[in-house]
Design brief:
The chain is of the alpha/beta class. Helix content is 29%, strand content 33%. The protein starts with a helix and ends in a 12-residue tail after the last helix.
Amino acid sequence: MMSRLSVMLLSLWLGAIATGCALTAPTPARTAFLPQIDAAHAAPSEAPLPGLLLVGRFTVAEAFAGKSMVYRFAEHRYESDFYNEFFVAPRDFVSQGVLEWLQRAHLFENVVPAAGTRARRALLLQGSVNEMYADLRDAQQPAAVLSIQFYLIDENLPGRPVRLSQQLRQVMPMADASAAAYADALSRAMTSIFTELERQVRTGVEPSGADGGDQG
């Protein structure tokens, strides 16, 4: 029969082995995705509007602002994905996507980031992402949901009036419920929303004589 001391030593030895195994267990790798616009759809189709457009950094609702992907499973049940995330924060790839789209589309004579730019006369585009998640409530019809509120502010006039205020929303079907399918559908949703934004600005904003101002 083992002595009490032997039992204690055996327990400590087994515990040390279990702890060692736990410490050496591999940590599951995270996978990063970067949603991107389809730049081929942003080719100039009309003459640019006159003047300068400043594109500000967009904000994102707190629930969707992190790098972890967010899934919706029920009316009030959302979960973040520890293993699948965006390569950069949503505010970064959305802000960059808008800027790149409007530059490629040549929407205005000059389209530049608002940060670091000084201009006497310009229009300022700002926006806020209100929704960004994979809707998995219907397992047979998963979809990427993206909604963005846009504001086009006239820096030329007293009081800085809003020339355009519009929320655009897309529910884009996903090929399946995977993270890769979500990133792909989100890319298509951004492309669709930016296409509509360009159309609305072209048709809804009359030239106000804005010039290029001072850039630097």
